[in-house]
Write a structure and sequence with these properties.
By secondary structure, this protein is an alpha/beta fold. It is built from ten helices and five strands, in the order E-H-E-H-E-H-E-H-E-H-H-H-H-H-H. It has two domains: 121 residues, Response regulator (Rossmann fold, 3-Layer(aba) Sandwich); 66 residues, Winged helix-like DNA-binding domain superfamily/Winged helix DNA-binding domain (Arc Repressor Mutant, subunit A). Helix 7 crosses helix 10.
């Protein structure tokens, strides 16, 4: 039987990317998504028996992840709730310290690690909570991206373009774009496309494009 996942995030781009990546794995099925946390809460309550795990963004307008989880868990301990966040600073962690939840994952971590944890959680072999550490390099190096790297990041993470397509748009060689991509990943300490998408959205690149 498939593990049934429901995703709540106020960014459609993140939902789409996460859904595609999660459903690559066997016995994992995304059975619902929503960008509106209040409507998502109502739907999950009405479909509680059809959902095993809720992947929940911590920071959302109107109803944040911690309060969402409090309301959901107050009535029943299921489904499991895993928080997804781009921030794992002391303040963010303190927000959920007294909130009943079943895991905390950084948004730049590989989807493979998240899926492995989901499987362990639903089989009863996972720890009560999990917090994957982040490298301080990401915060420090964000300001070190060159203007060209910022544009390449936008084309990769927001527009979903290949290195060849970016090279054509920017009138550069494909090899040059590949080098830029490697530099971006090194500076941000992010080594997968999903992580770059989350980072770009956290910087509002989808709202204020650099080009």
């Amino acid at each position: 039987m498939s593990i049934r996942i429901y995703i709540v995030d106020d960014h459609p781009l993140i939902i789409d990317g996460l859904k595609v990546n999660i459903e690559r794995f066997a016995s994992i099925e995304v059975v619902g998504t929503h960008t509106d946390p209040e409507r998502a809460l109502d739907e999950i309550r009405s479909r509680r028996d059809e959902i095993d795990v809720v992947l929940l963004d911590i920071s959302m307008p109107r109803l944040g992840g911690p309060e969402f989880s409090r309301r959901l868990k107050k009535e029943n301990t299921r489904p499991f709730v895993i928080f997804l966040t781009y921030l794992t600073d002391e303040y963010t962690v303190s927000q959920i310290a007294d909130t009943q939840h079943d895991g905390l994952f950084h948004k730049t971590e590989p989807v493979d690690a998240l899926v492995e944890y989901i499987r362990a959680l639903t089989s009863g072999t996972a720890p009560v909570t999990q917090l994957l550490p982040t490298s301080p390099r990401s915060a420090e190096s964000a300001n070190q991206l060159t203007p060209t790297e910022i544009i390449v990041l936008y084309y990769v993470a927001v527009k979903g373009l290949t290195s060849r397509e970016i090279a054509d748009i920017m009138s550069r060689s494909e090899l040059t774009i590949v080098k830029h991509r490697k530099n971006i990943m090194f500076k941000l300490d992010i080594h997968n496309i999903q992580g770059l998408v989350w980072y770009a959205i956290s910087k509002d690149m989808h709202v204020n494009p650099p080009v």
